[in-house]
Every structure is written in structure tokens, then in C-alpha cells.
Amino acid sequence: MLRFALLLLIASTALALDLKPANDGVVIEAGSMGSFTFANPILRDGASKPVHKITEVRGGTIIYEGGGKATIATTKDSIAITFASLPDDVKTIELGMLIDIAYSQGGKWQIGDKAGDFPRAKASPPHLHSGNAGTFSLTHALGQSLEFTVPDFTFQQLTDNREWNWGIFHWMGLVPLNRDNPTLTIKLSTKQSGPAQKLVDVFGQNTREDWTGKVKSLDELKADVQADDVYYKSLQPAMTDKFGGAPGSGAKLGLKRTGFFHIEKQGDKQWLVSPEGNAFFHLGICGFAPSDDYTYVKGREGIYEWLPKLDSEFSSAFREGNADHFSFYLANTIKKFGKPHTLEDFANRMIPRVRAFGFNSIGAFSPAPAAAQTASFPYVQSLPINEWEGVKRIPGAWEVWDPFDDATAKLIAERIAKEVPARANDPLLIGWFIVNEPRYDELPRVIPSLPGTHACKQRFVASLKTKYTDIAAFNTAWQTSAASFDDLTARGIEVKTDTAKSDVKAFVGVFLDTLFKQVCEATRKADPNHLIIGTRLQPVTIEDEQLCRISGKYFDVLSYNYYTYGMDTAALRRYHDWSGLSLMLSEFFWSSPKDSGLTGGRELKTQQERGLAYRNYVEQAAATGFVIGIEWFTLIDQATTGRWFSQYSGESANTGLFSVADRPWKPMLDEMMKTNHGIYPLLFGERKAFAWDDERVRVK
């Protein structure tokens, strides 16, 4: 009898560990060391290729294609994974765990007798270590360590995934399956290895590095007030209409003046038109408010050189009065300007600044401050149907709800009817995003694997029953042995034949059509005046003709969070042709870790290169004739110790136009302004699009 057990034994010393089963593995909450997900095991064959994908995860049980099963049981200090009925071709078990990029800030690793620092910059080669060993440990800058003891025959590999433009580290363990003695034990222990390092200075900057523009003293910070005044007055943005459009272009191009932003098509050219009837290219900025600059300080106070009390002159630098969420950026503005932070002061200061840079609108993840109305500064909004607002998501498919669930459909209609009409007559509103980065591409895997408690699973099985009528006909087409259609509803279904894949794809089309129709009809009823600008798709999701065509039935714009180095205009053309829609490239950035003290994302060597990459991206996109806008992510750099809502595992990248010290990244902005100030001559064919002659941005 096959009994393969993976035991994770937790010995709590320096910090308490908390284990939480999840859909994608077991989450290990390690306090201030962060959160780690010990991923569901992957089965490999003799050639070390993955085999037998997971078809269902339910209640601690994993079902694999071919009938293999893994049962996960957790206690407060252990995880036991017991395998059964594994197919004969399974030879190796792959274990894996992601490690936050924040470990590049003073973190260390050790595998067996090999040790090193998590690299500050992208490692070359990307594999920090590969080899067989019986232990693996990581140590945080706080001086805390977490050690795994694994079987001596485990092949371990630690990798810096920044090589593939993913800011994270990855640990992998490959364990041969010994069918005669199929028990694997992994133990965890924790300890305090040493004192905490001071990683963050009094201005919220990285203490371990220096760079041009790093603030060294309070006097220097205060002197920026006068220097800023000179700098911003020196900028010469192009003339625009009241809303940021090209003045006089409406009459020249024959565009309509409707009083609201809208799309007009003229042959192969698509225009976003301002309320005054002029051509408008959306140059937006995501996070146009203090947001990613807040960080979670509780439990790691020792790494900061300075933290104020909540009941001090810096109280407005804490998010919503929460002592755990602090913004060094806001503390610096309080020091710099000598008064507490308010959102309206912030917006009144920022709108003239970014307008001088040539940006003309507020992007996603931003409030709509009164200052935007006073300054006639356009903005976008997202529909009030987030998970934290009660709209439940389907497990395993990020940001996707079940459109066949009556309670969910009712709540969506109610929330939109309640919140959206208040902005229906605002000419400054460009349009509505639906959600951010939904993983519709996961639906072909997730829907068949769901239990029958989900309405979409019930509807899916009903569609199969309608098509096949007889369970025997279904079993033949799908090469399975279900006892009845009711049996299909209750359990996960393997999708292994071409016919099965075709059936699933067809149902996913019905699912998406229902979802988009549901939310768009409710939105247009509440607000008939503004654009629906889509669901901010990711590259892995947008490459789907069916999805794009269904989007074209309901949306006004296809929004795409397009993170890249090189601008693949042929791919953009494909999505445009499939959907028939204008495109908005709704999220992107590049970072320069070496001269910001922050971690990377899409890494470049200098701030100027960030600007050159922006010019290449925006101008190549605008020249297509169907990309009608972009949104840069973000206004202010992310906090050195990560974003507040991710606690100890938050992004901490050089995303901003401004540093934590409220200093604009001028070399980057010098390049950005060349594009922003000249965007309309480019759209009107009066100049050619900029192309950066750099190998990294050439589409292969």
C-alpha cells in the first residue's frame, strides 16, 4: 500500500509560526519574517518533466490527473501530506516556496555548508545555489532565522527570478519517490540569530546604499521647498484645452463635443475625445494619493532608525490613525512644509506638478479629490464591487466572481446602483474600470475542479448534460467513468481529451459573456455617460481571442496592464483586431534599484533609462492609432520596507515619479516630458515615434 508522507514539524523558538491551508498550498505565517507558501507538490516523471496536473483541490485533498491523490493534514506544528495511487510514471516530488524580494535587503541564505547573501541586484547567473543538501535556512535582517531540515538526498535550488523579470526568489526541492519507503520528513526550527540591522534611515531611505538625490539632513529637506519652486516654474508644458486635450483639434478632425469623454473611430484611427470635443491622449498616473508609500512597521521596529508616536506631530503620516501603518513620505512632507498632511493639500500640490510634466489625468487606485474638480483634472474610477465590499471571488481564479450565483449578481447590481450614479454627470470622469488583473485564464482549470456548491459548476454540468444527454456518451467523449451527471457536479473532473477541452472552452465563453453583460448592463443603467474601460488584463490573460471578442461586445475600451521592455505592437494589433476596441495600457513602470535604494521590478541601470524606456513605450503605442492612453504606476515610490497591506512581504520598488523624500526623479522626467509635451504632434502625424536604440526593448 502506497503511503507517502511529507511531515513539516514546527519547533517554535524565536517566533511563532502559524500554518494555514490554502488552495495553492500551505501558508506559513512567520511573523516579521514574512509569509511563505509551501506550494502543493508537483509530480515529475523519470525525465524530470511535470506530469499529472492537479485537477481539484478540496478540503485538504489534492487530486491529480490519472487518479493520484494527496491528503494534507495540519496541526499547529506540522503538515502531513500523504500520497496515494500515484501513477507508475511518477518518479520525483517537487516542492517549492517563494521568498520575498525584500530578503535582498540584508537577508542571508544557507543550503548545507554553502551560504551567502540574498543579492541586492539581480544575480548572474540566476541560480544562487544548486546541489544536494539536508538543510536550508534563511535569515532576515531582523536577525531571525527559519531553518528547514530535509532528507539528505534532496536536490535543492535557490533562484533569483529577476532574471525573468519577476522580483522574487524561489526555493525548489526535488525528492526522489522511494515507493518502498515513501515517507519524507521536513522539520522547521526558528531562532534569533543576532541583532536587527538598521535598514531604514530617519527619512525612510535605505541605509545600506548611497545615490544621487539621497537626502542627508533635515536642513537639506527643508531647502527643497525653494528649489522646488524654481524647478517647477522652469517647466514648459504644451498648451491644452481645459481637460488636457489638444486645443482646436476637434474642429480640425471633425470630432464631436458631447460634454463627456468618448471614443470616436475614423477609419483605422481611434480617438479618445475630451468633453470639449478635442483629441485627448490619456496620460494618467496610478496611485495618485498616498498609498504604496505606507508600510507595516509593527514587529520590526528595530530596523528603523526613527519612528514617531501616533499621538505626535506626525499623526497624519499614519494611515487612518493606525499605528501599524506609517508613511515616511508623508512624514517628510510634514517636516518639509511644516504642517500636517491632508489629501486636499496633497492634491493641490501634486496636480500642478504632474501637469507641468505633461501628465493630464489621475489613474487607477486613486480617490477623486475636490482639488481635481477645481483644477479640471480628469480621472478614472473603479466599480465598487471589490471582494472587501462583499463580492465573493471564486477560489483559484483571482478577482473572478461567479456570475451564475444569484446572491452575487444581486449584490453587484445593488452596489453599482448605490455608488455609481453620483458621478454619472461629472465631465471629468473618463470612465470605469471593472476589476484589476482578473485571472480569466485560470477558468478552464478551475471551473471543472470546483465542488457542486458553486453555481457555475452546477451550470457547467448542466451544459454537459444538455449536450450529451446520456452519461455513457459523456464518458466516451471525455474518457472518464462518471456514474452520473450528479456525480460530476459533486467532484472535480479531469479535462484530458480535445473534446473535453473544447467543451470547457465553450462554457468559459458563456461564463465570460454572462459576467460582462451582468456588470456592464448595471453600470450603463446607473451611468449612461461614461466609458467602461475594461478589466486591466495581464499578458497571460489577454492572449485569448474568445475573451477579447466577448470584451468587444460589452466594453468601450480594452485595458491592459502591459509590463514589458519592448513594445510588441503586433500583439497589441492582434488584441485590437480581436476585440474591435481601443486599447488603454493601464499599468507599467521601470525601476532603477542602484540609484533609488529600492528593489526592482522591470530593472534598468539609471533614472534616465527609466525615462527612455517610457518614451519608447508610450510613443510606439500612441503611433498605432488605436492605443488611446496609458497609466504609469505610480506617483510615489513604494516604501523601502514594502506596502502596508502586504505586511512583511510587500513590494518595495522604485515605481514613482517622486522619491520618499518628495524629490522628483529629474533625469527620468526630463525624458518623459519629451514624450508628454509632444504627444499630440505625434498623434497628428507631425513627427515620428521615438524608438530607443537599446537591445532590451527590441521585440524578438
Give an overview of the whole structure.
This protein folds into 4 domains: 4-192, no CATH class; 235-278, no CATH class; 281-377 and 562-700, no CATH class; 379-518, no CATH class. The strands form 7 sheets. Strands 6-7-8-9-1-18-15-14-11-12 form a 10-stranded mixed sheet. A 5-stranded antiparallel sheet has the order 5-10-17-16-13, with no helix packed on it. With 700 residues, the protein is an alpha+beta fold. The protein contains 17 helices and 31 strands.
State the helical fraction: 25-40%
Q: What is the number of independent domains?
A: 4
The largest pleated sheet is described as:
10 strands, mixed
Major sheet: arrangement of strands: 6-7-8-9-1-18-15-14-11-12
As an assembly, this protein is single chain
Q: What is the terminal separation in angstroms? A: 51 Å
- Which overall shape is indicated by the principal axes computed on the Cα atoms? globular
What is the residue-averaged pLDDT? 93
> How much of the residues is beta strand, in percent?
15-25%
Rg result: 27 Å
Given helix and strand content, the structural type is alpha+beta
**Count of helical regions:** 17
- Low-pLDDT parts are 1-14
Protein traits:
4 domains; 10-stranded mixed beta sheet; 5-stranded antiparallel beta sheet; 23% strand; disordered N terminus
Topology:
Blueprint: E1 4-11, E2 18-22, E3 25-29, E4 35-39, E5 42-44, E6 54-58, E7 61-64, E8 69-75, E9 78-84, E10 92-100, E11 108-111, E12 114-117, E13 127-132, E14 135-139, E15 144-149, E16 155-160, E17 168-176, E18 183-192, H1 218-233, H2 249-253, E19 262-266, E20 269-273, E21 279-280, E22 282-286, E23 294-296, E24 325-327, H3 328-337, H4 343-357, E25 361-362, H5 370-375, E26 379-382, H6 406-419, E27 429-433, H7 443-449, H8 455-468, H9 471-478, H10 485-490, H11 498-526, E28 531-532, H12 539-542, H13 545-554, E29 557-560, H14 569-579, E30 582-588, H15 607-622, E31 627-633, H16 666-676, H17 679-683
Parallel strand pairs: 1-18, 22-25, 22-31, 26-27, 27-28, 29-30, 30-31
Antiparallel strand pairs: 1-9, 2-3, 3-4, 5-10, 6-7, 7-8, 8-9, 10-17, 11-12, 11-14, 13-16, 14-15, 15-18, 16-17, 19-20, 20-21, 23-24
